[in-house]
Amino acid sequence: MKIYIMTDMEGASGLRLGGEYFPKANTPNYIIGQRLLTADVNAAIEGALEGGAKEIVVSDGHGGGSILVEELHPEAQLESPVSGRKGHYDVPVVLVTGDLAATIEAKKMLGKEIEVVAVKEGLSRNVAKSIHPSKAQQLIKKAAFAAISKIGKVKPLKLKLPIEIKLEFQKTHLADNYENKPNIKRIDGRTIVCKVNSQLEIFLNVV
Asked: What gap in Å lies between CA 84 and CA 207, rounded to an integer?
């Protein structure tokens, strides 16, 4: 049984500030964030292994990388991200951890059967309150163990295609990055649209 774990540092337990206050790369606080994330991931790996997983691949989705390779569980492999393409390849999501809003949205999109762990709760755009990392890791390990039993019962996310993607950015310079991409139309200073025929195209053309 192969398990794929997609990560991003913003979802780690113990990290409570976002936006301009989020730890910058190569700073002491960033290294703390790397350790917190790696510990959360290791908890998920341990739970999955106890649940019967035979192969585990971890995808580091944070820009610049955030997983500490030397501290990652030795039974896991590390690779670059493919995130939301999983549904395209018929891979179901059985566990989501992160802030409370993410877990609520995951249940709505992916089904009530999936396992979730809310390790923090957003208080404002850039501030959250987090449970203690050691408690978060206990909950993640337990949820990962339970999630393994739901493989084969939870269906992968399949969108009704074709669909039109519309992205409205907070700032115009973010929309500028899509100005010359194929199949993308800019409809105003902060908004782009794109029609896709598969879930894979969303990530090839838009993300």
From this structure: 10
